[in-house]
Amino acid sequence: MSVATEVRTKYEAVIGLEVHVQLLTQSKLFCSCSTRFGDPPNSNVCPVCLGLPGALPVLNRDAVTMAMKAAMALNCAINTRSRFARKNYFYPDLPKGYQISQYDEPLSQDGWIEIEANGARRRIGITRVHLEEDAGKSLHEGFPDSERKSYIDLNRSGVPLIEIVSEPDLRTSEESYDYLTRLKTLMLYLEVSNCNMEEGSLRCDANVSVRHAGASEFGTKTEVKNLNSFRFLQKALEYEIERQIEIVESGGTIEQETRLWDSREQRTYGMRSKEFAHDYRYFPEPDLLPLIITEDWKDEVRRSLPELPEARRQRFISEYALPEYDAAQLTASKILANYFEEVAKASGEPKLAANWVLSELLYLLKEANKEITDSPVSAASLAELLALLSKGTVSGKMAKEILAEMFRAGKRAAEVMSAQGLEQINDAEKIAAMVREIMAGNPKQVEQYRKGKTATLGWFVGQVMKATRGQANPQLVQDVLKRELG
Ligand code: ADP
Ligand code: ZN
Ligand code: MG
Fold first, then answer.
1. How many domains does the structure of the chain reveal?
2. In whole angstroms, what is the distance from residue 225 CA to residue 91 CA?
3. Which of 77, 332, 428, 480 is the most buried (most CB within 10 A)?
4. pLDDT of residue 471 exceeding 80
């Protein structure tokens, strides 16, 4: 599918995302069962999360605290009083026949997050952040249908989720990608979720509509589900925007419906239309009291918030005099930012630390297909190397080689250097002897220099460096050469 650019520019897309984030609590939202991922099926279950008659839910305080952290970081107002509600529907992995969620009295609302679009910063509204429980998981196997078996694992039933609903403020697939990336970074900084998309800890549904550029009314939206990677989100939005433009261009109307992204076919297809839309018959959960959040609790949570990505980016610029771009790169991941800061502090060389972490270290990690958490070179170890480099004990070229070997063998700089005889040559006598030898072998160049062609000095430096495999201290080589040649 492809819409001509002149047609495309007549339209504007309107996008709002609904993101589910699994919270990193030890136990489930309404019972004490473990939330651990990957345990044997149906091993972390009890009467509450199995939906057995008469079992009563008890709210997990840690889940509320984590949800508050997320809501505060998204600049939402926390409601003193909120309420849980039953969302009724039938599904095999929903044993109670309803999900406990929040409806007209959510935990928090009216926030915003800043994204970057075409080099400019822009606020995207957050409609609400509320708490709800996850459903179990259905697993299907066998083909064709007559051979098909379905299994149900209720370990996930009752695991706490927050749902973060955005205002319809996003306009392009790139903005949506950036929004989701920033949301994820924020959750990782807060340590409220591991945001592992493969394990379903971060899930995103996209609402999208199109309208004529400049129009003030929104068009009819479709909701795209099944977007289990950032790339799929972007692709599905691009596909869906073009699909809707084609329909409107040819005089049709958009049907409000739920669609699924098919990553193999690279397209969305209709799942259910609004005609068959669920009526969830929400009503207040009678087994739980309203959730009351005191000012003390709010203050306590607010005080526990860590430094967030934006504040950290600005601090890196002011405290370490880093370029904007470096600061943004380093703070895009909390683990990377921590690593950099440790190197910067231990080496006393923040700029050098930023350069080496962003270029050499990330390159080595990428080559080895490793994450920074598995780096064979610790921050302390990299700091030692950078201290040697800044003192001039090793040259930049040598430091690169040493780092590669530290990375490969998991050794510290000093070990690599003594094993390979890689120390920089700082012995003026040794260098002078070498210089005299090179001068003796190249009388023509010596004469040129003495007749005033001082550029020849560079050639001599090169010869000495070559003879020492780059190990001679370049400044010392220059000094000795000038003395011997002069
Ligand atoms: P629904 O009643 O279908 O649940 P909501 O108004 O609650 O719709 O909005 C759900 C999500 O859809 C929100 O993220 C919102 O920003 C987004 N949204 C609402 N209207 C539109 C629209 N016309 N186009 C794109 N997204 C929209
Ligand atoms: Zn349980
Ligand atoms: Mg809604």
1. 3
2. 17
3. 480
4. no
